[in-house]
Design goal:
The structure holds two protein chains of two kinds.
Chain A lengths: L16 E7 L4 H8 L6 E9 L3 E9 L5 H10 L4 E6 L2 E7 L5 E3 L2 E2 L15 E6 L4 E4 L5 E3 L4 E2 L1
Antiparallel strand pairs in A: 1-3, 1-4, 2-3, 4-5, 6-8, 7-11, 8-9, 9-10
Chain B lengths: L15 H16 L10 E6 L4 H13 L3 E5 L13 H8 L5 E6 L4 H8 L4 E6 L5 H14 L9 E6 L6 H10 L4 E6 L8 H9 L3 E4 L3 H7 L2 E4 L10 H10 L15 E3 L20 H6 L1 H12 L5
Parallel strand pairs in B: 1-2, 1-3, 3-4, 5-6, 5-8, 6-7, 8-9
Classes of the chains: A mainly beta, B alpha/beta.
């Protein structure tokens, strides 16, 4: 047995799938809910210690790799998170969630009077500020902190 | 300058040169009306929300250039009442008309309509969002009164009243960022100009300064742009009456005003400009409203490709 302190896993390892790390703690459950399907195995850690964030959330989804739409949603609710793709218990790809220039059809406009809340019409938001993330609705032209938007 | 086929949704979609070209075209039309310029063209006016001034001014503009007009001014008589989507209404109307002028109570409705329509859509006001033709006529009026604006010399414009919710103020301020000017503001507590607009103006090198009362504004402005205070913005009716009294301009207050000061207002006014101001040399709001016709004539002629 090694003398060094054993590495404690706070969240179960997965054989295949995706790990989303460095999630703001308050957004963790939302991320899990948004990205996982009803039948997926999901492991969630909230308020884990993080050098970078102080506290963070981690979500591990077994057997699923995120598509472009999921990444876009992730960028909106957890900008700054990192994504690792796991195959055979090994990280085969790790990257920061890319911030798109615009978000298409991932969230509802927070302005109750916006036409997109009254017509069947795809929403679109343009990024106007990065830290903290602010977006402007393409239609009603109002700007919001990304945290105020409800995901579709 | 190719404005033919363009939608007119937001002032922010237009460059300084495009705005100046529109103002020049409006000035040329005001000099010599062209009675057959838009003969054979049809303008549809879709007013999902009533508006006397904007609709009549667009109709006058179209009719005086020889075009024809169809549409509705009462949403109760439109198919929207039967639950038709805005997109479907536009898909139908674009087949009947060469240009669509629309006012709608929802923010962003004009942008959506423009994405559906193959003919130009002109936004006649979408909720609390944009009303670009009002801004164009405001700017036309200011440039007509103060030609030095175009020559790059600084003029002082003071915005007074509800600067928080007033879309005409935000939109005109945005357009003024293309020119050299100094901005003064006077607003009740809680209805001040939102920081994002102050920041935008300053980013364009424009000084923005809050002044304590209309008296300071009168003494140091070239243009005093008055807006309406709406009672629903004030939870306390007593407070509203008190504030309303301090945002009312009278002829007596203008006795010592600099002769070049001109007062503008998007209208309708409800007491913030006393009727005794109308006879002073400073009153310019009715002339401003009349400018809506040449500006809208120019816009129609340009987007319909009748003028370049």
């Amino acid at each position: 047995m090694s003398e060094s302190a054993p590495r404690i896993r706070h969240v179960e390892a997965i054989a295949e799938g995706t790990v989303i790390d460095h999630i703001p703690p308050a957004a963790t459950l939302k991320v899990a809910q948004l990205l996982s399907g009803a039948a997926d195995q999901v492991f969630i850690g909230i308020n884990l210690r993080s050098e970078r964030l102080g506290r963070k959330g981690v979500v591990k989804i077994a057997g699923r790799e995120l598509d472009q739409r999921a990444l876009s949603s992730l960028a909106l609710i957890a900008p700054g998170a990192t994504v690792s793709i796991i195959r055979d218990y090994r990280v085969v790809r790790k990257f920061a969630v890319p911030l798109p220039e615009r978000f298409e059809q991932v969230a509802r406009c927070a302005n109750a009077n916006c036409i997109t809340n009254h017509e069947q019409w795809p929403t679109r938001f343009v990024v106007v500020g990065e830290r903290p993330l602010r977006v402007r609705c393409w239609y009603c032209e109002r700007a919001f902190p990304a945290s105020e938007l409800a995901l579709l | 300058m190719p404005l033919a086929g363009r939608h007119v949704i937001s002032v922010a979609d237009f460059t300084r040169d495009e705005i100046l070209h529109l103002l020049d075209t409006a000035a040329a039309i005001a000099q010599g009306p062209r009675r057959e310029l838009l003969a054979g063209k049809i303008m549809a006016t879709l007013f999902f929300e009533p508006s006397t001034r904007t609709r009549l001014s667009f109709e006058a503009a179209m009719l005086s250039l020889g075009g024809r007009v169809l549409g509705f001014s009462d949403p109760g008589s439109s198919s929207a009442r039967k639950g038709e989507s805005l997109a479907d209404t536009i898909r139908m109307v674009e087949r009947y008309a060469d240009v669509i002028v629309m006012r709608h109570p929802r923010d962003g409705a004009a942008r959506l309509a423009a994405e559906v329509s193959r003919v130009p859509v002109i936004n006649g006001g979408d909720g609390a969002n944009q009303h670009p033709t009002q801004t164009f006529l405001d700017l036309y009026t200011i440039a007509e009164l103060f030609p030095e604006l175009r020559a790059g010399r600084c003029i002082t414009v003071c915005f007074a009243g509800d600067l928080r919710y007033g879309r005409t103020v935000h939109s005109l301020l945005h357009a003024l960022c293309h020119f050299a000017c100094r901005i003064l503001t006077v607003a009740p507590r809680g209805l001040e100009l939102p920081e994002q607009y102050v920041a935008e103006a300053r980013a364009h090198g424009i000084a923005v300064e809050a002044v304590p009362s209309l008296h300071e504004a009168i003494a140091s402005s070239d243009v005093l742009y008055m807006t309406r205070l709406q009672e629903e913005r004030f939870p306390d009716p007593v407070e509203f009456e008190h504030i309303k009294a301090s945002y009312r301009i009278t002829a007596a207050m203008l006795a010592a005003a600099p002769p070049r000061l001109r007062i503008l207002h998007p209208l309708p006014r409800v007491g913030e400009i006393a009727t005794d101001v109308d006879a002073t040399l400073h009153a310019h709001y009715f002339a401003q409203a009349a400018n809506g016709v040449p500006v809208r004539q120019a816009l129609l002629a340009l987007v319909l490709g009748a003028l370049r």
